[in-house]
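Quick one: structure for this chain?
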Amino acid sequence: MNADEPTSEESHGAARPGITRRGVLAVAAGGLVAGTVITLSGWTPQPKPILAPSGGVRRTPLPIPPLAEPEIAHDGTRIFSLTAQTGQSRIHPAGPTPSWGYNGAFAGPSLRAAEGDRVRIVVRNELPETTTVHWHGLKLPAQYDGGPHQPIAPGEEWIAEWEIEQPAATCWYHPHTHGTTEAQVTRGLMGLFILQDELSEWSGLPIDYGVDDVPVLVTDRSFNADGTFAARERTAFGLLGDTVIVNGALSPTFEVTRALTRLRLLNGSSARTYHFVVQGAPMTLVGTEAGLLPDPTPINSVTLTPGERAEVLVELEPGQTAMLQSVPHSLGLLQSTSRAAGAEDRFDVLELRAASSFAGPDLTIAGLGMIAQVLPPPLEAPDVTRSMVLTNNQINGATMEMSRVDQVVTVGARERWVIDNQHHLPHNLHIHNARFLVVSVDGEPPRDYERGWKDTVYAPPGRPVIIDVEFGRSADPEWPYMFHCHWLMHHDMGMMGQFVVIDDTQEPPTAISTPAVHAGNPGGGMNGSH
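Got it. Here's what it folds into:
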């Protein structure tokens, strides 16, 4: 199939102007809406701002997700509570939007912990369907990873507890059900999980949450005339919206009150890629998704595919205005394919408007000390080299099977993965319980924004990506971790595999028990443990 051919040969309905209908896609019950239309060419939902009655852009103050305040147990454990619930959000001026969130109507609070902390997170499901909560980017025991093997039924609670074993990073949490992840994330289920450590706090980085340390969760949606989410039209990459939402707001503006502002950027979209620039001010990269860089790196732009994050610094003068934008960029694709991924779009994301005078700490990029430990060099002799071949919703020729063990990792092993996207569509690869460094892309060194610790990497068609992977310290032959494409529709259609981590004393399993076997309390919750 070439880039301009439909993904399904079954036609569906009449086309309206500007939209080419290309067929019906069926996914697991509760996932994509029945009759979902998949199109690759002819539909370009360019994000657009919402206009005020005066004709100018209708700007709203950037909402800051609340910072969750944990209860501190007698042994020092930090206890967080999350409730997945339904609600009504005031996102679009056309009317209330039915949405889902954690402890609220849309998205969720930011969780924050430090390396060495012990955390316990109590998750209650008040949704009308089963969900999970995956801690994206975190190393932790597999039974608490929150993948499809740890389902939480409606009305039930699940508890995850572990010790933070990794340095500062911007991680996040979201559902990770098998077949319904895109639908649940699209309704609003996501939030940041911020990790700190002593070195990053000492370095001089902005750390005043919501003031100079700002979460920026970027997603996109389309809306119906009444303000409800429109979720039927999709490209071959998934839901590509015509409206950008940042922290639950349209066309937001943030009042900058410090000379140096730290933006924690998350691509929380299910399909759209972003190529971020800051118009009107320089941008400095200080972290990729799985960790901070040793030193600040001036950059012109940063590309984030679904699930990727970046931490950037913006330095403004009093009274200055700058604009975070997404601009056209190359994903190494044919033009029609690039358009369907949103790569040809240009739009504003977040206005940064500096106050007339600044208060607070006098932080500057020039005054930063060492931010993180020096990155290790590429492995000279990996203990294991694995090949990951990406094709049409398959990895290594297979789609996801809950009981199958695809890979076995030995704890402490130094691994190299070679990711080869042999499909004409873009894909990326996210690995649970791991962080990695990009060694090369098609034999060339990684770009500046790919040089730090990562947990998700873009794999352009026909250009192999080599990564050196560092896994967490936990070993358990009975509970698996996932590796998968983070274009969420591809994920739901089975572009996912699973691996177990064992130590030298454990035998690799031949199969994994399904959640039905671990009934009642997968992952060790209120009613006992596995």
